[in-house]
Amino acid sequence: MGLFDELQCRAPLPSAARENPPPDVWWQTKDFDEPSFDKYIITEGGRLICTRRKIEVVEYDTDFHGDLGFYHLEGRVWWEYRARFTEGQLARITLIDFSPTKWIKFSPPKNED
Question: Considering the chain, what percentage of its residues have pLDDT values greater than 70?
Fold first, then answer.
């Protein structure tokens, strides 16, 4: 599984078909170098803010440039997005994947004594 960071998106997220993305959730991302359970927020104004909790809480604008993928499993539905930042400003958010998961039933192995 590995380490990851969490992200909350306060900017509007694209919907999928007739489904709206889950509100007020923390999404996961592994797109930052050295993920360490930091918390990020995409603000309503389109900035990416990081909150680090090491010895003390430090919050700062990341001035991020590039693509940032994030995802969440809500019930049986997988949501995945990609946010594009240009010179620190959110340019767009794209829905990458929306799919109900297929639940697999596992049967215990039969004891063949």
Answer: 88
Structure token pair of residue 43: 């603000």
**Could you give the CA distance from residue 21 to residue 18 in angstroms, rounded to a whole number?**
10
pTM more than 0.70: yes
The answer, yes or no, to whether residue 107 has pLDDT greater than 60, is no
| Residue boundaries of the structural domains of the chain | 5-100
- Count other Cβ atoms within 10 Å, centred on residue 34: 7
Tokens standing for 53? 């909790």
Half-sphere exposure of 67 (CA within 13 A, CB side): 7
**95 burial type by CB count under 10 A (0-12 exposed, 13-18 middle, 19+ buried):** middle
Number of C-beta neighbours around residue 38 at 10 A: 20
- Contact between 89 and 61 under an 8 Å Cβ cutoff? The reply is no
